[in-house]
Amino acid sequence: MLSPVLLLWVLVVAWKQARPRGQLWRFLRERLGIYPHEHALHAPKRWIHAASVGEVLTAIPLLDALIEAEGAQALLVTTTTVTGAEVLSQRVPAVSHRYAPIDLPGAVKRFIRHQPIRSLWIMETELWPWLIAKTKRNGTPLSIVNARLSSRTIAGAARVMAPVYADALLGVDVLARSAEDAARYRALGGTRVTEVGDLKLVAPLQQERQPSLVSRPYHLCASTHNDEEASLASAWCATDKQALLVIAPRHPDRGDSLATQLSSIAGHNVGQRSMGQLPEAHHRVYLADTLGELDRWYTHATTVFVGGSLVERGGHNLMEAARRARPISTGPHTSNFAEACQSLLAADALYRASDADAVVKWMRSLDATECRAMGERARRVALEDQAVLPRYLSALSIAA
User: Fold this and answer.
1) CA distance 189 to 204
2) Which residue, of 193, 261, 296, 361, has the fewest CB within 10 Å?
3) What is the DSSP letter of 205?
4) For residue range 210-231, what is the model confidence (pLDDT) as tens digits?
């Protein structure tokens, strides 16, 4: 019954994301499980499914360790978004990549026939019943890695598809990021659930400090969503101080429409990185609408606001900024990273703002000494648990 909805969703994503990047036909073919003969990957591989940008970034420390232990030729990574694929190609270019098959019997069957799989590791929350069922029927070991479930997801699944998910999770190893997530997977029907820890706390292997992308000091609003950027820019431009606010949206493909929106707020005082512009002296707002550069923006920011938290999206990863010793603020909606928030708040390393005006007021209030002290407290929290990756490698039977 849901098949037409899934197909329509794939077509919309193909048209909006893949077509502008010249990948329309490849995206559609691979989502339907259709591959040219010359693209066959014959050697059995470990299959890691990381749906989009967030899951890819979470998987990078694990992929780095796997490449070191087994070699890149042993790995196949699938994504469901073009942006996820682009981040993967920038950060871990050596691994093979395919777009994941849509969760229909024919597409999944064709994918598995095309590529022999040694094991399947699904990052975080991608519970596709057909994909899981076909993989298990093929005798392939399956694990959900850094498994997380929101209260909203568990409530919806319990009402609508609880028997389906209980059957799908039978015999699947669920490696949960927290005790709360483990309990939710058990409530959904998981019987082999272990709390291992949050992979988002693990820093990638390459952590060299790169130079700033701009010459001016700046404050950063990272991973922002629609309805956040306008309120933040309005609050920023209402202040008198001629400082620079960098906005790095969660989905950079919104860049052109967002630049138009921000220009209506800040006039001609907006620069756009994807257009090759650099922030000039008169710019109040700079739009960082490119992929793969967020860590460099974090590294040199005076202060950081992590988005998806002023709107009901559940927030985004705070530890990327914390590892770079930045003072961090967030909004009230942080259910996706509740434990990280609590750890940072307990260490006085996070400011929770009620709205955009409070974010901007906080950014303006800190002096250099306070920024350094708060950033250092955040870094200590981020580096507290360095045994997470070895625990995952042990649970997945990979030599550390």
Assistant:
1) 33
2) 361
3) S
4) 889 999 999 999 999 999 999 9
Out of 30, 55, 228, 229, the active site residue is 55
Q: Are 200 and 58 spatial neighbours (Cβ–Cβ below 8 Å)?
A: yes
Tokens, residue 284: 């109040």
How many H-runs (helices) and E-runs (strands) does the chain carry? 17, 14
pLDDT in tens, 343-354: 999 999 999 999
What pLDDT, on the 0 to 100 scale, is given for residue 44?
79
The structure tokens listed for 165 are: 């998910």
Domain membership of residue 119 (yes or no) is yes
Q: Are residues 112 and 238 in the same domain?
A: no
3-state SS of 314-342? CCCCCHHHHHCCCCEEECCCCHHHHHHHH
**Which pair of tokens denotes residue 226?**
């629609």
In a domain, 113, yes or no: yes
The two three-digit tokens of residue 134, written as one number: 């076909």
The 8-class DSSP code of residue 103 comes to S
Respond yes or no: is residue 312 known to be catalytic: no
Q: Is residue 225 part of a domain?
A: yes
The enclosing domain of 131 has a CATH number of 3.40.50.11720
Q: Look at residue 326 in the predicted model and tell me its pLDDT.
A: 96
Bridge partners for 330 per DSSP:
306, 352
Q: What CATH number did the domain enclosing 296 receive? A: 3.40.50.2000
Q: Which residues of 281-304 are buried (b: 16+ CB within 10 A; e: fewer)?
A: eebbbbbbbebeebbbbbbbbbbb
Give the model's pLDDT for residue 400. 40
Cα 47 versus chain centre, distance: 18
